[in-house]
Structures are given as structure tokens and as C-alpha cells.
Amino acid sequence: MFKSLNGVVLPGGGQDLKTSGYAKASQFFFEKSVEAYAKGDIFPILGICLGFEQLTEMVYGKNWLTQCDAENVLLPLKFLPAYNTSRLFKGFTPDLLVALETKPITANFHHKCMTPKNFSLSGLDKFYDALSTSIDKDGLEFISTMEAKKFPFYGLQWHPEKAVYEWTEREHLPHSYEAIRISQTIINFFVNEARRSRHAFVNSTVEMTSLIYNYPLYYAAMKTSKFTQIYSDNETVATKGSRP
Question: According to its UniProt record, which reaction does this protein catalyse (predicted)?
């Protein structure tokens, strides 16, 4: 599968960072990407929310996260010096950078945070550049955006995708013109990173059988789900209120 894909997104959710299938799959792609990079093979990874947390755990195999309260809240970013030379923010227009820094525009849904202190004590600051911080409901500062110094790894503790794809009134979500453009800029950046990879499926048949379109798509918002649409082979599971 690694040789077939051009990159991986580690999405949000609720899974154990060591023992879950999510963690094991993430670790596999993380290690394969590091190994491939030494041979000039680019394989980018984008971690969102839980994916961000997983990226912090996989470097040294230890969890340095702390309890926090950033559930269902929109927050601005406080940019750190490294953002000026970052790859991730390079393509952002000045008005979007101003919006990120001055408006509550990033959607947060997490109870674990990486504090700047733990980021430094853990040695993660040797592997990643912290690009921004945010403040949770209790006033705790946490790392909200980071990128690896060497490898094509990017971590967002916030959810850029929700601005475009989630429309439930049960959650605080940004849908302004700026929020949509921020989401699109992140997506376009990561797709361009994936274009640097030369991996490919062995043939079109194998590729088609691997696509998510093989799974039914359910409109879940009319029921109790917090998501607008869900791919699943089980409608009851797809449309229940809990997160997958």
C-alpha cells in the first residue's frame, strides 16, 4: 500500500496512540516515509487533531500530551517565528494570515494538548518546528500548528476541513469566505506535496477497488450524527451520534 499511495492524512477521532489500529497504521507510514526520504522518495503526512497528537507520539514513542479543554471552540493562531520560513504557510496570502491571527477562525475539538514546555522538554523541538500556538478555554497555551524540520510531515491541532464539509448547527464551525479559503489553501498545499511522490497503483483495477467510493455514503446530519456525510458499510453505525 505504501508504494501505491502518494501521501497520507491522519484524521481526527478518538483512538489510543499506541495500541489502536489507527496508531499502528500511522506508525507504519511514518517509518516508511522516514526510510524512503533517505532515498530521495517523498511521502508526505498531514496529521489533523488526533493525527497531530499521533505525530508527536511517533517520534520518540512517548506521549507528552496534557489534559486541556479545546472542545468545540473557534480560536485564532498566535504565530511563532518559525512560521515566517515554513513550507506550510508559504502559500498563504497576507489577508489569510491576518485572519488566522486576529479572528477565531480555527475549529478545535480536542481534550489533549501539547504545551510549549512539553514540546521543548520532550525534544520534539529538535524534530519539528512549532509554527503557532492557541489558547484553550482555561487559558492554557498549546502548540496548534507544526511541521517537521526535515521530513514532509505537517500537524494541525485544528480542523481546516470542517469549514468546507461540516454544516451541523450542533458545533461551532467557521464558514466565512476566509475560513473556506484557509481550508482550500491547506488542501492545495498538501496535494502539491503529494504530487512530489512518484508512487502509483500497479494498475487501474487495483486502484479502483481501493477507493473510498466503494463504500456507501450516508447523509447523517438528519439523524443524530455530528457529521454531514459518512462513508460506511453499516448505516446504523454511520448515522449514530458518536464519532467514528
Answer: (6S)-5,6,7,8-tetrahydrofolyl-(gamma-L-Glu)(n) + (n-1) H2O = (6S)-5,6,7,8-tetrahydrofolate + (n-1) L-glutamate
Contact at 8 Å (CB) between 88 and 144?
no
Give me the active site residues, please: 49, 159
CA nearest 158: which of 108, 196, 204? 108
> Model-level pTM?
0.94
Domains and CATH numbers, the chain: 8-210 (3.40.50.880), 211-244 (no CATH)
Q: Which residue has the cell 511541521?
A: 147
- 61-112 residue pLDDT tens: 999 999 999 999 999 999 999 999 999 999 999 999 999 999 999 999 999 9
Q: What is the pLDDT of residue 237?
A: 64
Distance CA 43, CA 33 (A): 5
Q: How far, in Å, CA of 240 to CA of 87, rounded? A: 38
Going by C-alpha positions, the residue among 133, 78, 120 that lies closest to residue 103 is 78
